[in-house]
Specification:
about 400 residues, alpha/beta, Rossmann fold, 7-stranded parallel β-sheet, 6-stranded parallel β-sheet
Length: about 400
């Protein structure tokens, strides 16, 4: 059976959670069998990045498509929102939509693997048997965004997006034969809002960096995440306001690493001594090597957090909220608390020997539960179980 994989987020560079999950799925699947990848370019995607993706996916036919521009995009939200509404899509989904890709899918048969929420826009009018891999139950996360909206206009916008997102998700689910999510908690959210539990739970994975040599410095912390993701920023600011002072008093410093910090955020962070905003870095290893521990203060967000896995893969002990540790089995490498003060208290209660043991266990946890090898096995087993892959089909290529 032919397999077509669709992604609306070009996975290079892997500068945030979405492209990281996309790339790991594409690479894991390419080690097992060939397929056709239909992917939407980002506005900044280069020909060199497209060529690099083809190099990373031997045996895969990569078809790249531009996103279809808004007719009245020059008007900003006033032009984009009505067009997105007319299409029955949340504006961010419409922004990633390619009419040319959709037309191409209408000519294809067999199985379809749709990676990410926005890929659900391509189900109508196609003859593929779709499996939808979801990293986020939109109906749950949109309601959370509405509760956290800071002002009247923001709340109105969030409520509008909640309705549009829930309707889009419901229609797409009705056309998907099978669905996967990243955690049992996400499966429960899917059942709560749509009356349908996930067919498969497929946690994310990360690579353990080859040759990485941690050189932790006492009292050195790190925070990792995309600043474009609102729950990350809200969680960070809450932790700085309510938990940071206790750590800074005993000499801790913290480096914030991630893409997309705004001028307003830089100003807010500057009010907290001992905190440095480094922004996006291409290679995480040098900035994570000196980290004694990491803080993952999240009070909302969906599924297994790639930031948490990435930190653990680099042998960094993690202190997280329940949302930050979602989907991760109990482990010596992770300590959990539900408030900023409690997070700080967890770290302050640790001895040097405690942190050493956490750091030693962290990559071992990733190797057992969240490695690319483990993910590839889970992915193939899951897709065979739901009928997307033929269990009697091609065996993994030699050396994969």
């Amino acid at each position: 059976m032919e397999l077509t994989v669709v992604s609306t987020y070009f996975p290079l560079p892997a500068d945030r959670g979405d492209p990281v999950r996309v790339l790991m799925m594409l690479r894991a699947l390419s080690r097992v069998r060939g397929y056709t990848l239909s992917v939407v370019r980002r506005p900044e995607t280069t020909g060199e990045q497209v060529a690099r993706l083809r190099e990373l996916l031997p045996g895969v036919e990569v078809r790249d498509f531009p996103a279809t521009p808004y007719r009245l995009g020059r008007l900003g939200p006033a032009g984009r929102y009505p067009e997105a509404l007319a299409a029955g899509l949340p504006p961010w989904v419409r922004t990633r939509y390619s009419a040319a890709l959709h037309a191409d899918l209408r000519t294809r048969t067999g199985a379809g693997l749709a990676i990410g929420e926005a890929a659900g826009a391509y189900f109508p009018g196609t003859g593929l048997r779709w499996h939808w891999d979801k990293a986020n139950v939109l109906s749950a996360s949109a309601r959370q965004d509405a509760r956290e909206a800071p002002g009247f206009v923001d709340r109105l916008r969030a409520r509008y997006l909640t309705r549009v997102s829930g309707g889009f998700e419901s229609r797409a689910l009705s056309r998907a034969a099978t669905v996967s999510v990243t955690s049992t908690e996400e499966s429960a959210r899917l059942a709560r809002y749509h009356g349908r539990a996930a067919d498969v739970t497929l946690p994310s994975c990360v690579e353990i960096p080859a040759g990485h040599l941690p050189r932790p410095r006492e009292r050195t912390l790190v925070w990792l995440g995309s600043f474009a993701y609102r729950p990350n920023v809200l969680g960070l600011l809450r932790f700085l306001d309510e938990g940071w002072a206790a750590l800074h008093r005993v000499g801790y410093t913290m480096t914030l690493v991630g893409s997309g910090p705004s001028a307003g955020l830089r100003h807010a962070v500057a009010a907290h001594p001992g905190v440095e905003l480094a922004g996006y870095v291409e290679d995480l290893a040098p900035v994570l090597a000196p980290a004694r521990a990491a803080m993952v203060p999240l009070w909302s967000g969906a599924g297994v957090k790639l930031k948490t896995l990435t930190l653990l893969a680099h042998a960094v002990p993690v202190f997280a909220t329940p949302a930050g540790a979602e989907g991760i089995p109990p482990s010596l490498a992770v300590r959990v608390a539900d408030s900023p003060a409690a997070l700080a208290g967890q770290l302050l209660s640790c001895t040097a020997e405690d942190l050493d043991r956490m750091a030693h266990e962290a990559p071992r946890l990733i190797e057992r539960e969240f490695s690319e090898r483990r993910f590839a096995q889970r992915l193939v087993d899951a897709l065979e179980r739901v009928g997307v892959l033929d269990p009697t089909g091609p065996v993994p290529r030699e050396g994969s």
